[in-house]
Amino acid sequence: MIIDVSDTGKGISKQNIAKVFKPGFTTKKRGWGLGLSLSRRIIEQYHKGHLTVKYSEPGKGTTFRIVLKK
Ligand SMILES: Nc1ncnc2c1ncn2[C@@H]1O[C@H](COP(=O)(O)OP(=O)(O)OP(=O)(O)O)[C@@H](O)[C@H]1O
Ligand SMILES: [Mg+2]
Fold it and tell me: Which of 23, 31, 43, 67 is the most buried (most CB within 10 A)?
């Protein structure tokens, strides 16, 4: 099963795509940098699935992909 979640937000720069799942990485003034690392942990460890950035372009938006086994 594949779930793609897209937004039309500010996007993620190429260099940051590799970092967004790292615990503590944030570009927000008051961010904890926990949302995506926790999401990936739950999807990978609990559901044996995958969470990745499928597409992102600064100024255009982002698509995250969740892959789960049947
Ligand atoms: N949908 C998105 N569009 C653009 N950038 C994003 C998106 N989701 C995450 N990011 C980038 O990835 C970083 C890490 O996201 P994450 O959710 O792990 O932490 P956070 O949102 O900064 O803080 P927290 O979720 O802990 O409050 C964000 O600070 C932002 O730079
Ligand atoms: Mg977050």
Answer: 43
